[in-house]
Amino acid sequence: MIFTEERETRAANLLEVFAARGLMIATAESCTGGLIAGLLTEIAGSSRVVERGFVSYSNAAKNELLGVPTETIEAHGAVSETVVRAMAEGALAQSRAHVAIAVSGVAGPGGGTVAKPVGLVHLACARQRGATVHLERRYGDRGRGEIRLMTIDDALGLLEAAIAEA
Q1: pLDDT digits 0-9 by tens, 141-163
Q2: Residue ranges making up the domain that contains 31
Q3: pLDDT digits (tens, 9 = 90+) for 100-109
Q4: pTM of the entire structure?
Q5: Residue 149: CB partners within 8 Å, gap ≥ 6?
């Protein structure tokens, strides 16, 4: 088993509610490298809900796959509220999904700065109807794997909150 039983149960419950409402999800992932989509697709029948996933690890991928303007990335940096919002909205625009989740962060062990330390992650959830929701987390330097898992948990939380508003 790749993921814990608790995470898989949470994902299965989420997918069940999305499926019951006829809603589909897209993911746009940088620091998690596709782990959110991986967790969701670990669940049998997830194809009813998971429309597609984008692993946009590089700035070029954020631009080419999701339409994040290069100028935006240069002005704010890939790990920023502005860019992660654009990633989520781009994933929504480039898919048939009703809800898109996006993440970008500094998972470490290196790459952090004073302004953007290891453990800083920005998450955004865009919906066809409603405003894009942003969440900033500063997990601290807990190790790459732990930061990525904590990001998955917060991404699930944003998707769960989106159900009520989608």
Answers
A1: 999 999 999 999 999 999 999 98
A2: 5-165
A3: 999 999 999 9
A4: 0.97
A5: none
